[in-house]
């Protein structure tokens, strides 16, 4: 009875982005099952500023800190609250959960379950409105019809009957079909007239119906995990989940459209698969670094945009089954994802596509002052992510095989690189020209700059990639290593890019360190899309300039997509010299301390195509040749064949890793060397140029 007493006190409530957190006086009314709040304790006798019905609500402690929690009402309204400390949060959460459970069970007792599990909104006629079709008895408890029995201690324990999950799945399948019909009906409306497909109420209906189905799938996922743990126990640590060989039996719904397992017998496989499994016999391939001649590279003509849902739409039941095997927060490193969600390039090539604006990259060193060079680097940095995404649909690049490499280059006409009128940096001095002639044969006289790029997968567990780009003529290079940590977040997947990059401007003796934002694949059951989130910092220790950039994730209600804000400041005086705001895939606005502004429309920004060697000239471990059969099969829409080629590559990697472990043979990288916690290119420009200059001084 003590636990059912009314409690009250001050909590912080998150209002919106403008007003943020505010103290409010909250009262838990256990008898009525209400959570009410007032401006302060003195106004408690007045009408509450807000009220939440707790029956059917979900009380969730937040992972972001030990003070925050949320109250999600069945109506869809949400309170985000913060206590003064962890103890007070636990006190409120436990009392709210007890009150919620009491009133939710009371509803279940007072409402009989549905008589027929074949209930269908569609069967009642399309002319009926959702409000007319809804009945008070159709609450969550009576809908799922969960049975109970009393344990020896008298506590009620829920029992999941064997056929209940199938019944729920049937109902949810009907609801999913009706939701799809609703979306199609709205989208088929004209774009002008009395009722259009762009009507605000209809757009809100589309969004809320989609969010409702996502929430139901989350709940069903929890029920499946609970049932699976009761039947089989949880998955042991380190288990590899192979999608094509599911660990639990599939219902007919899940089998619909599922990819078939392939025969493991090598003789039944095509020659290309046998080649993929055998090209790396021990000792067959050399790990010596190879110098790539940019003159052998040709302009890339491939254009694999990922704007078509295609197989993703058809294979949604497979994604549902995959999600049923995952837990919130699970590391996805060892999870083998289905082939149809892959985009047609390796992760190493995706890093190269971040360099698709080499003119902005080269313009950094042409800045006439340290302040201008930092601002130019921020401009280049923010424009690099848009082209890194291939289309609006979120798909996953291939996980690079350990030892995989990718090479490319860009040719940038010197006339198209922004210079500064007060700077003589655009024209190398006579002594520098001699150095350049020594460094790069004959390229000092060319009318274009060459930016060379190389990436290598240096580790498999954890998955770490190293990449390096340089322009010898401009004496600038960038070196970075990235560890991609992916986690399952329920209805989305989060990827943390752990690592650091270093931009070196050798003409100025400046080094800029930078990090990368997190990436999120949202709405993975509907139309998947990508957003970036998190705070990144750019620092130059020599000049004392730094930049702080925030990639904002979209709030649940309202707000803009892909929003980014940032500022550049001089650390010594704490003076902000430039502010930036906008969207990282649309328009960016830079405001300078002088009051001037500049807008950059990324959708109109010229993209320079990279240059890549033809497949026949690439080594067997270069990305495009390594994955060529997977890519060709995906282009042809043959998911089964693509899966077979992908499995052959992954099996080869596992066999090699097992052999190295048995023989205690360490893996030797080709282009990158381990230095501390990071990876550095074996011949960085800052070493080669200093070596050349030392040799010239010795000769003189």
UniProtKB/TrEMBL annotation:
The keyword Magnesium does not apply. Residues 4-101 form the PH domain. It is found in: Golgi apparatus, trans-Golgi network membrane; Late endosome membrane. InterPro entries: OSBP_sf, Oxysterol-bd, Oxysterol-bd_CS, PH-like_dom_sf, PH_domain. CDD domains: PH_ORP10_ORP11. GO terms for cellular component: cytosol; Golgi apparatus; late endosome membrane. One of its GO terms (biological process) is lipid transport. The keyword S-adenosyl-L-methionine does not apply. Residues 291-303 have a biased composition (Acidic residues). GO terms for molecular function: sterol binding. Its main location: Golgi. It catalyses: a 1,2-diacyl-sn-glycero-3-phospho-(1D-myo-inositol 4-phosphate)(out) + a 1,2-diacyl-sn-glycero-3-phospho-L-serine(in) = a 1,2-diacyl-sn-glycero-3-phospho-(1D-myo-inositol 4-phosphate)(in) + a 1,2-diacyl-sn-glycero-3-phospho-L-serine(out). Pfam families: Oxysterol_BP, PH. Residues 106-134, 271-303 are annotated as: Disordered. Residues 117-134 have a biased composition (Polar residues). Keywords: Acetylation, Endosome, Golgi apparatus, Lipid transport, Lipid-binding, Membrane, Phosphoprotein, Transport. Heterodimer with OSBPL9. Belongs to the OSBP family. PANTHER family: OXYSTEROL-BINDING PROTEIN-RELATED, OXYSTEROL-BINDING PROTEIN-RELATED PROTEIN 11. Plays a role in regulating ADIPOQ and FABP4 levels in differentiating adipocytes and is also involved in regulation of adipocyte triglyceride storage. Weakly binds 25-hydroxycholesterol. Interacts with OSBPL9 to function as lipid transfer proteins. This is Oxysterol-binding protein. The gene is Osbpl11.
